[in-house]
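Consider the subject:
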Amino acid sequence: MITARGLRKRFRQTSGDGFEAVRGIDIDVRKGEAFGFLGPNGAGKSSTMRMIASVSPVTGGELRILGMDPAVDGPAIRGRIGVCPQEDNLDQELNVFDNLYVYGRYFGLPKQVVRERVGELLEFAKLTEKAKAKVDELSGGMKRRLTIARSLINRPDLLLLDEPTTGLDPQARHLLWDQLFRLKQAGVTLVLTTHYMDEAEQLCDRLVIMDKGVIVAEGAPRDLIREHSTREVAELRFGVGEHAAHAELLADLGDRIEELPDRLLVYAEDGEEVVARTHERGLQPIATLVRRSTLEDVFLRLTGRTLVD
């Protein structure tokens, strides 16, 4: 569905050689899978997604979408993909039904076909009862479901989702997860960016983690956790100012130890054993927590904890 080799994106600046947002990445997205792009701000995710959507030209390398070259076949590609942007850009002057209907007509579909699809998508998005409502009458979750429904009006082979659940409450997020899973079961290939690591674990068959324009890891979420982390993590909280000294005393209890301002993270195969041996050494944490390693542990290890603006 998507193949990229040495893909690059450079932006011109008023002075100097410009800024290279994507620095020679290779990507293969298979039919029917959910593929994710993870990375901190400025990693190159959005620039890559815009090239895949055929709305931003490739600077270097090779990119094929649905077997076509976006530099030559941009309109044909855009006719076969759906795009759900990060920000809802719905038409505030139209009601829910017309937001879908007018968008469907942009693809040159017959009026009756569009009406039938609008009905199907309203049911899919659980918005049938809101068909005549104005956009500003909808909740955030409803607006997000309407935006996703709109991206499906042309029955795309490939659906691009940029931060699909940002700003939604847990109930709305899980409802969207269910709907995206149904789309994947129906054969739609999903490509998404997200800052929610649990979302990536739930939705993605495979993903890449990007940092500073390059891919630093690729694989299934479970494989990435196994490769870059341990089975469990023991979180140990001590008094203010005690963590540095205790980190030295406990460094041999796991594969690695990470010191945070409010706790120590000990990465080990058996977290309960770490806690027991901590007590054996006469140390008394204020609180302890043993949990399984997550994709977030992998993400932070590969991209760092420093805030990127």
About this structure: DSSP finds eleven helices and 13 strands in the chain. The first strand starts at residue 2 and ends at 11. Residues 170-185 form the longest helix (16 residues).
